[in-house]
Amino acid sequence: MTPEERRAELAESLAEVRERLAKACRAAGRSPEEVELLAVTKTFPASDVALLSDLGLSAFAENREQEARGKVAEFAELRPEAASRWHMVGQLQRNKARAVARWADVVESVDSERLAEALARAAANALDAGERERPLDVLVQVSLDGTTGRGGAAPEDVHRLAEMIARRSDLRLRGVMAVAPLGGDPVVAFTTLSSISERLRVDHPEAVEVSAGMSGDLESAVAHGSTRVRVGTALLGGRRLTSP
């Protein structure tokens, strides 16, 4: 596929996703401006990110630090003047915190105090070294299925984790993130997340972001207050294979 053909393909997919978002917002009585479209570019090349940037997107997400590091750098070379904001959305090991703090604007998958501490130290070091210009924005990932296998803090632990994050000057608490349980009812999941978000904002009014909804369930997420949907397949197509 030529770059021109790929651009046309991405433009068509982007138009379809934006129309879905617009319809979902109308159905929920919300403005489309209230919901950010985050392009999940994992396994896809930096050239696709560049094309999406040309089409007007500026928020991109990765779930593996090693892949993201090179992609962020390559994108910066391809589009040096482009505005971009990079999100880490995958499960993150503490030993990757320093590397992530060098390229990520947002980490959405903070699910433990130990990870938050590691990210706070990493962000502080990156700020001191001139590798970043501002504190690291973070979201608390919430587990909605009673397990931690896919990442996420238990709902009853969210407040304590948020309090710890809010005390760190090198981190900025922005809200919550969750993935609907496999095989579960997304309506139930996103209703639960909305309730958790409302309770969190009582003590942390700055934590307004709700990252929820993906290619298959974004309509339900928007209906239940999502402020950011994370879309990969519907935008970029089937996942490509990458080396480990």
UniProtKB/TrEMBL annotation:
Listed transmembrane segments: none
Statement: the UniProt record of this protein carries the keyword Amino-acid biosynthesis: no
InterPro entries: Ala_racemase_N, PLP-binding_barrel, PyrdxlP_homeostasis
Record's keyword terms, sorted: Pyridoxal phosphate
Modified residues (N6-(pyridoxal phosphate)lysine): 42
Gene3D superfamilies linked: Alanine racemase
Pfam families according to UniProt: Ala_racemase_N
The Alanine racemase N-terminal domain, residue ranges: 14-239
Domain of life: Bacteria
Purpose of the protein: Pyridoxal 5'-phosphate (PLP)-binding protein, which is involved in PLP homeostasis.
Family designation: Belongs to the pyridoxal phosphate-binding protein YggS/PROSC family.
Name by which UniProt lists this protein: Pyridoxal phosphate homeostasis protein
The species this protein was found in: Saccharopolyspora ipomoeae
